[in-house]
Write a structure and sequence with these properties.
Number of strands: 11
Distance between the termini: 105 Å
CATH architecture of one domain: 2-Layer Sandwich
Helix content: 40-55%
CATH superfamily of one domain: PAS domain
Strand order of the largest sheet: 2-1-5-4-3
Order of helices and strands: HHEEHHEEEHHHEHEEHEEHE
Radius of gyration: 51 Å
CATH class of one domain: Alpha Beta
Largest sheet: 5 strands, antiparallel
Length: 363
């Protein structure tokens, strides 16, 4: 029997240092060996429980249960699992434990010894309380998640409503913009037509200066009319893509058509506007209206921010496949903090550029 116990127990240290009460009994319930945990629970010295009867360590109710249920169940099924009992130390209150046991049998099925393990009921209750608290916390977390889900669903509905409202406002903006642009076409067209009518009237007695002013007014009205026509194309506003109307153009000639109006603007500040081509400039494939718009913006800003009496210079030069136009003034200049923004201006999308064999122009 002792040899069987030794064979069952792989390591003595594991038996002695187990975190639960562990003991072996013979088939009649007499203790063959008990580990240190069992001895400490009962306030006994190591080895003192050997040869004691397991039932004698229990409360009166536990003794009765052992004789009427524990041993008969071990004979019948070979094991029991987590039976609640009370150990009775020599000094102090009873010690509630949960006991599990297995009966070891020989090859013929005869019982050889019993292996009993016990865990303290207090530890089990602590674990159950912690488990219950964890369950409550998980349930509270689930309720909180459900509430947050409802809040997110409500926010989603609110965002959807706001998005719909923004779409409606965007459409209303486009409608009003189209109406305003449409209403502007009439007066602008009338200005250009009247200027052209006066200039072409053989009976009109216009001075050279007046005829020059009418020519500039006619050109300005045509440029503004082109801008208004672009505003009327809602698809351009929606997509941000401007289709270019490219055609072979002599850039020096194009610049000369814009200079009279700009020089007239510069005269009020006693500013001179100079234009110079550096070498031969080839014909390029560009949108005349868009190039004029960019040049007018650059030169107008240069005149606006230049000091009175200072010059504004426009140079044009062919460099490889490009034609570069540069505007230089003697004004206050661009603040250092803003220079980075100037170089990062948005450029026309690729879809706005049409293939061509002619050089392109860079401003």
């Amino acid at each position: 029997m002792a040899a069987g116990v030794a064979a069952w127990e792989d390591h003595r240290e594991a038996f002695e240092d187990a975190p639960f009460g562990h003991l072996y009994t013979n088939p009649q319930g007499r203790i063959l060996r008990a580990n240190a945990k069992f001895h400490r629970w009962l306030g006994e010295q190591p080895g003192a429980l050997t040869s004691s009867c397991f039932a004698d360590l229990l409360s009166p109710g536990g003794r009765i249960f052992t004789e009427t249920h524990l041993w008969p169940l071990l004979r019948l099924s070979g094991y029991i699992h987590e039976v609640a009992l009370e150990l009775m130390p020599g000094v102090g209150p009873s010690l509630p434990v949960f006991v599990s046991a297995v009966e070891v049998r020989d090859a013929n099925g005869r019982p050889v010894f019993c292996r009993i393990a016990a865990t303290r009921g207090l530890h089990r209750r602590v674990f159950e309380r912690e488990l219950f608290a964890s369950k409550q916390q998980a349930e509270a977390t689930a309720i909180d998640l459900q509430q947050r889900h409802k809040e997110l669903a409500a926010l989603h509905q609110q965002l959807a409503a706001e998005k719909l409202r923004l779409v409606e406002l965007h459409q209303e903006k486009n409608r009003l913009l189209g109406m305003a642009a449409h209403d502007l076409r009439g007066p602008l067209g009338a200005i250009g037509s009247l200027a052209e009518l006066v200039m072409d009237d053989p009976a009109s007695r216009l001075s050279a200066e007046s005829r020059e002013f009418l020519t500039m007014a006619h050109q300005s009205s045509e440029q503004m009319l082109r801008l208004v026509n672009d505003l009327l194309d809602v698809s351009k506003i929606e997509s941000g893509i401007v289709r270019l109307n490219r055609q072979p153009t002599s850039l020096p000639d194009l610049v000369e058509t814009a200079l009279p109006v700009l020089r007239s603007l510069a005269q009020s500040k006693d500013i001179s506007v100079h234009f110079q081509t550096l070498g031969r400039v080839p014909v390029v494939n560009v949108d005349r209206g868009k190039v004029l718009q960019v040049l007018n913006n650059l030169l107008t800003n240069a005149i606006k921010f230049s000091y009175p009496g200072s010059p504004v210079e426009l140079t044009m030069e062919a460099t490889g496949a490009d034609v570069v136009m540069a505007v230089r003034d003697r004004g206050q200049g661009i603040p250092q903090s803003e220079i980075g923004n100037c170089s990062n201006r948005s450029k026309p999308p690729v879809s706005a550029v049409q293939p061509t064999n002619l050089p392109t122009a860079s401003v």
